[in-house]
User: Fold this.
Amino acid sequence: MAGRIEDYALIGDMQTAALVCRSGSIDWLCLPRFDSGACFAALLGDERNGSWRVAPRGADTCTRRRYRGDTLVLETEWETPDGTVRVLDFMPPRHEAPDVVRIVQGVTGRVDVRSELRLRFDYGRVVPWVRRLDGQIAAVAGPDSVYLRTDVDTYGKDLTTYADFSVGAGEEVSFVLTWHPSHLPPPRPVDAPRELENTEALWRDWLGCCSYEGPWRDAVQRSLITLKALTYQPTGGVVAAATTSLPEDLGGVRNWDYRYCWLRDATLLLQALLRCGFTDEAHEWREWLVRAVAGDPADLQIMYGVAGERRLLEYELPWLAGYESSKPVRVGNAAVEQLQLDVYGEVLDALSLARRSGLDSYAPAWA
Assistant:
């Protein structure tokens, strides 16, 4: 069963994102893009639909958690009768492939820990073929492959990959989960401690450009980090959410896929980015907007894919029970076909704001 929505924290690499529960379970992750199929879909079903839990043996929820400084590195701690253990969860800047890194650190005492990995591709439906390959676990299903690299022993049971180990004060165990196209050779492994340093430096350096000095600065900066995490870096598009089918009403049917870019968000996004000094991101979002709406103005849509895709065909996933039994679970969004006249004004307003704010002019936008 999924956790309460308020118990989930976001990690991401600016091309996709994962949700981590207070229990230590990653219950939602789409690879390699925000709008790709989920390999962890327990958020919309249960653990049988894919999840990855790393936590002390016998523990329920964590004692405390936080983001490390001005970063998207999540730090979770459990205090147990045997000692205290910490887990760092993050997605490093993407190199060859997307990675999820989980570093288990012993703080006090000696604590028994279990990693419990259930990969289920195609939104929790497909059980992969799992094997050992060159010192790692390889899971393959159709076009997708996922590799698990760790220094501790793993074993398989009931279509699940386990690792049972203990950590003492000052000790550390790392897990790296990597997606790659299944027809290609495995990507080169990343070094978890080095990627932790790189990831923290990336977020600190980026937020160091923030010029906002108004009220609630900490909350504003955390919101900016979230906006950046929801940005598809290759194109500059910003998704409305990292998830699909979280209900408007628990148990209801208004469960939509929000992993797309809405034109209605354009002006608000530009205002937020420009007001806080992030002109590069504002420029990239403006460029995405102009590319996405290219063509006959009569064909303007209310939303587009992260690369500007227009066809966002909607279909249902009947094998998923839905969050809090809220069915149906949907992929795609049929609202793309709706005529909403305000989007013309949203586009003009966004382009006007960009011009008034001093962004480099884009001649075709005013042709």
Residues 46 and 337 are 32 Å apart (CA to CA).
